[in-house]
């Protein structure tokens, strides 16, 4: 989704700092970009396309000013044109504004402003903001009050940043859309996400809904909607700037796949005690849920399916819901704990579902990667998955860490007979992931099947969500048809699609009834000449019916699910690489989906 950067105190390097910040926000997905610099006047440069197009446009211009704002836009109101790119300005060009989110009352504001003689040049909802500021300035307000007055008229979700000619400050406000300040010795930054300024500082202040920030030569202040100063905590970001670079990997996705052993270690660190067979998740251990409802989207939904199985296995009624469905048809909650699984903590559908649950009186918990994210702040509790920043649009390491964190949650809040075995499997997980990364035959499989018509993924129990995730990863980065099924469903329709040019990936571990039934499904596929890739620990006889095997170590089925997924991530990655896809920024997708 859209990205915001702002900075004060970078002198002659202001413009370069803004463009650098925007390039660090590219992972959020965007279709246009722009910057504004302010001094005694405001100058802007913006266009549809990529940051490189903006750089080219800037090469013909001299923009001056020592405070500025920048934006990457993901279209919501109006197509991705130069005119619709941010920043937007007032009638005189004295104000520039960038905005993330959706202003729900923009049409009535626009009608009012047009009737009062304002001229609009874009289709965006954002453009009402500079015109509102213009009105307030003309009515005699100083720049800060003018921005405040404009913000007070807005309904909906927004992170807004503004500059005003003749005032060396950046103003910002948020409601339902993230904004964070970065504090360096002689400069202050503002962004929708930390990577935008992480090269300059690790000191951050997260703004809360309804707060207003002023950044100027004297530093920064945060005030509430009444103008009273809010004392904010300054946090230290724990990851270093190198973590947002590619570290020699061709793509962020590949780097992040390889970061999984470390991410898992971080997730587990200090939380499991193998000797006593216990898990320590702090106060969360006292939650004692009698029922659990998970809400999530996309990859996180697949993690939620895993989480729901964990609780059911512990005898606690539990179900995973797609957040977009839950928000509009909240099922009876009773005294269930409602858990939002969201890597970013900013996914609009998931936030809506969590808010719906809160309105119904539920206790809520965010399982998220982003400290200070909206989900983390709005929920009663947060469990951090500690995966580190994920830049590739396709979720990889955060999925593995979500599964691990959900196992900790289930172990820490309920009791299962095999806690010791699970804890020992979790302890072995980072090492097992490393073995798969070192030895997986995924690239060969990708080479053999890169031209397949479609890809199918099947699994039972803990392997069903992995089958769904394998298919999602394949379709989002290769743009090829892929579907995942509970293995038993194959014969209820999808088998009609199976041909000799549709490889079927079957995840089979152990040799229990589930495994044997999945082997039966594999035989049905084989009888229809489809190539079979078995992802297996070799305990069942699935390999006899498979054309290829991706090997797994013997471990607990919960951990095996994480491991099987590593092979599938690699198959999708290598297939996409062979097909020359834009792996880190697949078409039509955004990293953080902040609209419903
Ligand atoms: C797929 C992917 C998306 C996200 C979904 C939820 O690779 O990244 O399906 O999983 O948009 O995002 P979060 O977890 O941030 O709520």
Compact summary:
Its EC number is 2.6.1.16. Residues 2-218 form the Glutamine amidotransferase type-2 domain. This protein has 596 residues and is of the alpha/beta class.
Question: Main traits of this protein?
Answer:
596 residues, alpha/beta, Glutamine Phosphoribosylpyrophosphate, subunit 1, domain 1, Rossmann fold, 8-stranded antiparallel sheet, 6-stranded antiparallel sheet, 17 helices, 26 strands, binds fructose -6-phosphate
> What best-fitting shape do the alpha-carbon axes yield?
globular
Count of structural domains:
3
- Termini separation: 12 Å
Using only C-alpha atoms, the radius of gyration works out to 25 Å
Strand order of the largest sheet: 3-2-4-1-10-9-11-14
What does this protein look like?
With about 600 residues, the chain is α/β, with parallel strands linked by helices. It has 3 domains: about 1-235, 4-Layer Sandwich (Glutamine Phosphoribosylpyrophosphate, subunit 1, domain 1); about 250-430, 3-Layer(aba) Sandwich (Rossmann fold), CATH 3.40.50.10490; about 440-595, Rossmann fold (3-Layer(aba) Sandwich), CATH 3.40.50. The protein has 17 helices and 26 strands. An 8-stranded antiparallel β-sheet has the order 3-2-4-1-10-9-11-14, covered by helices on one side. A hairpin with a 4-residue loop joins strand 9 and strand 10 (about 190). The model has no long low-confidence stretch (mean pLDDT about 95). Bound molecules: fructose -6-phosphate (F6R).
């Amino acid at each position: 989704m859209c990205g915001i950067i702002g900075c004060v105190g970078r002198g002659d390097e202001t413009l370069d700092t803004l463009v650098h910040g925007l390039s660090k926000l590219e992972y959020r997905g965007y279709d246009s970009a722009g910057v504004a610099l302010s001094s005694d006047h405001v100058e802007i440069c913006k266009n549809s396309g990529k940051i490189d197009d903006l750089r080219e446009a800037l090469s013909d211009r001299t923009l001056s000013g020592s405070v500025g704002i920048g934006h990457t836009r993901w279209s919501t109101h109006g197509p991705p044109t130069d005119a619709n790119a941010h920043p937007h300005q007032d009638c005189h060009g004295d104000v520039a504004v960038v905005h993330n989110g959706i202003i729900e009352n923009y049409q009535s504001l626009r009608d009012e402003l047009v009737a009062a003689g304002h001229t609009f040049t874009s289709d965006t909802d954002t453009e009402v903001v500079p015109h509102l500021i213009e009105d307030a300035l003309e009515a005699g307000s100083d720049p800060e009050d003018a921005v405040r007055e404009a913000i007070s008229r807005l309904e909906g979700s927004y992170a807004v940043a503004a500059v005003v000619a003749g005032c060396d400050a950046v103003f910002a406000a948020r409601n339902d859309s993230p904004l964070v300040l970065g504090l360096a010795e002689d400069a202050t930054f503002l962004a929708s996400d930390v990577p935008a300024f992480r090269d300059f500082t690790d000191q951050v202040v997260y703004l809360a809904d309804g707060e207003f920030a002023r950044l100027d030569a004297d530093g920064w202040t945060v005030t509430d909607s009444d103008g009273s100063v809010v004392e904010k905590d300054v946090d230290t970001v724990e990851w270093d700037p190198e973590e947002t670079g590619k570290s020699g990997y061709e793509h962020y996705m590949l780097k992040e796949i390889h970061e999984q052993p470390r991410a898992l270690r971080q997730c587990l660190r200090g939380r499991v005690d193998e000797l006593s067979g216990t898990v320590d998740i702090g106060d969360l251990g006292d939650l004692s849920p009698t029922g659990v409802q998970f809400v999530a989207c996309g990859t996180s939904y697949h993690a939620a399916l895993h989480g729901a199985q964990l609780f059911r296995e512990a005898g606690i009624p539990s179900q995973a819901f797609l957040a977009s469905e839950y928000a509009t048809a909240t099922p009876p909650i009773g005294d269930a704990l409602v858990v939002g699984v969201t890597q970013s903590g900013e996914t609009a559908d998931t936030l809506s579902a969590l808010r719906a649950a809160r309105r119904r009186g539920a206790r809520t918990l965010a399982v998220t990667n982003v400290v200070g994210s909206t989900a983390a702040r709005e929920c009663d509790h947060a469990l951090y998955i500690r995966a580190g920043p994920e830049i590739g649009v396709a979720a990889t390491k955060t999925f593995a860490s979500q599964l691990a964190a959900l196992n900790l949650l289930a172990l820490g809040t309920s009791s299962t007979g095999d806690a010791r075995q699970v804890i020992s499997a979790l302890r072995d997980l980072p090492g097992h992931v490393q073995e798969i990364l070192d030895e997986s035959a995924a690239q060969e499989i990708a080479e053999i099947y890169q031209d397949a018509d479609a890809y199918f993924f099947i699994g039972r129990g803990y392997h069903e969500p992995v089958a769904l995730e394998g298919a999602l990863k394949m379709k989002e980065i290769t743009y090829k048809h892929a579907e995942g099924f509970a293995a038993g469903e194959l014969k209820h329709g999808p088998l009609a699609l199976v041909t000799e040019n549709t490889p079927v990936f079957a995840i089979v571990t152990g040799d229990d009834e589930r495994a044997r039934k999945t082997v039966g499904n594999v035989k049905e596929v084989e009888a229809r000449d489809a190539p079979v890739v078995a992802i297996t620990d070799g305990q069942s006889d699935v390999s006899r019916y498979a054309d290829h095997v991706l090997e797994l170590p013997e471990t607990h089925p919960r951990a095996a699910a994480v491991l099987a997924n590593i092979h599938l991530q690699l198959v999708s990655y290598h297939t996409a690489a062979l097909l020359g896809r834009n792996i880190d920024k697949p078409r039509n997708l955004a990293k953080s989906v902040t609209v419903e």
